[in-house]
Amino acid sequence: MANEAHAAVDESEYISPQSHRSNLWRLTLAQALSGANAVVVYATGAIVGNMLSPSPVLATLPISIFVVGMAACVFPAGEIARRYGRRIAFLVGSGAGIFTGLFAMAALFMGWFWLFCLSTFLGGAYAAVVLSFRFAATDGLPVSKRPQALSLVMAGGIVAGIIGPQLVTQTMHLWPQKMFAATFLAQAIVALLAGFILFGVHSPTPKKQREQSGRSLSEIALQPRFICAVICGAASYLIMNFLMTAAPLAMHMHGHSQESSNLGIQWHVIAMYAPSFFTGKLIARFGATKISALGILLTGLSAVIGLIGEDVFHFWSLLILLGLGWNFGFLGASALVLECHQPEEKNRVQSLNDFIIFGLMAIGSFSSGGILSSYGWHTVLLVSFFPLVLATLTLGASGRKHRR
């Protein structure tokens, strides 16, 4: 089986303990800074989209294009990492993050909706690279230590959850005539700083003779374990994105302030990453399947709270539970992916997993704004239950098969 095949670390991927410790802390710090990119886009994207778009129905289009950018750039980023090493992929992603902020700032000054959409596409490309940090942290480690390394890097998102919303709150009125323009300039500077940190990452040298080795993607993708991992990861990320895309605009529509929305997003992102300090240990103790199931349950509860009321308390409670559900669901699914590939297959398999997840997310994100504007917030919440039911059924079937 794949997990048995990679139980021992591939010698060609050896990283010294000192380099691995350096990588781990660099990736964690970069996660904290780079993760602010996505937070800024989610906190402002629908509001700026509503300001610049020719129709209210298109208000959430920039966030949807952000997700498209993630999906479209997963495979190119993985190919760059496979051919030239992860560090080069990280630096290319940082460049995209810098242009995200500069283009968004220019779009606000010029009033160009299409340019703002281009900036969020680049932001999605940057986010796709940032999400590969979690897998990069496991390079050269034995299987037993991978969940802890993966979750520690994701814990850097706690700081991103503070930096991102505060970046918006403290800068959105610096240029009163162009709200949020200074925010995106600050975001570009943060992306530049993250690039300097990532420049010191050590990654295994790509081996030319191993580029065509390993099983075919179709063989890997048909593994029941991989199918379960993709469905759980997609459900966790899709619903998190679906609800978080609509929540700031829904709060605005229900008369809540931008500051309340920013604070809700801040606590949501903190909840997304705070459990990462111990999620890896929980996965090692109880198994990835059970932790994923817990995440799906918490995500469902968040939607239930949203259906109960529309006060600030309800929105904040929903966003916090949604963040916790994403952490357990997505990290549990990511740990399942690590069980499905051999060392020489890792970049292709990890890229395939993320491509499927972000592709499905794009569909959900595109529909989120239209459903919200046409049918209201409660309909958005009700629709979110369909992927959760599918993930629950898949986890149940996988658990029974695994026990047998």
UniProtKB/TrEMBL annotation:
InterPro entries for the chain: MFS (IPR011701), MFS_dom (IPR020846), MFS_trans_sf (IPR036259)
Keywords attached to this entry: Membrane, Transmembrane, Transmembrane helix
Domain of life assignment: Bacteria
Domain Major facilitator superfamily (MFS) profile residue range list: 188-404
Membrane spanning stretches: 24-45, 57-76, 88-107, 113-137, 149-168, 180-201, 222-244, 264-284, 291-309, 315-340, 352-371, 377-397
Protein name: MFS transporter
